[in-house]
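ligand=magnesium ion
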Amino acid sequence: MTHFKKIQLVSFVSIFAFAGFASGQQNAGMKPEETEIWTPVPAVVTPGATDAAPPSDAIVLFDGKSLDQWVNAQTGAPAEWIVGDGILTVKKGPGIGNIQTKRTFKNYQLHVEWRIPENITGSGQARGNSGVFLASTGPNDDGYELQVLDSYNNLTYVNGQAGAIYKENPPLVNPNRKPGEWQTYNIVWTAPTFNEDGSLKSPAYVTAFMNGVLVQNHFQLIGQTLFIGKPYYKKYDRAPIKLQAHGDKSEPISFRNIWVRELP
Ligand code: MG
């Protein structure tokens, strides 16, 4: 060790020791009350009967009965997907396409349940492909997609399997259930923010649990999730949540019990 390095090490150690001593000294003579925070009081929220049921402050986006909260993402006309037996099924066909919420959101907690049909056919990206677009930034934009796909036993690129932030980040693990069984997503979305000139102020983050298992841990998005090309950010303020009617030929998937809680 050189003389210079020795001096650096000695001063680092003494500064560190002094800092510890100083903060301990600062606390001497303090009362417990001095570190208690009493206001503002967190709002009381009644939890649902199960973790899947909407809590008292949730906005229910699909309650099993109506598509009142949704529109055709392309045209803004009433959403045409099929509602029956308490579930919502993707309707594929010319001019139908994706649906999105009438409401717009910034930061939120979202609960979505989805089911791949038991008789699903196809392979790779053409096997039960759908998606939850965490922010739908325009009818022709890709937005920010958390992938929905049959990934129970279906090989595809890992950043395109269920639980992936599409083409940006694979899920941490694969907790997929078999086709025919209901699966849950619990998502925390922190929206990106932008400067006046459109440049990025703070990136988007997502945390997601699939079937109760962490698949995205505060992942920092690189930009919009694109089918082709590298992700980039595009300024928006508030945006709807969108569900994908993918153009693949496999049997349409279903959703149920969709609710959201807006976050500050
Ligand atoms: Mg998709």
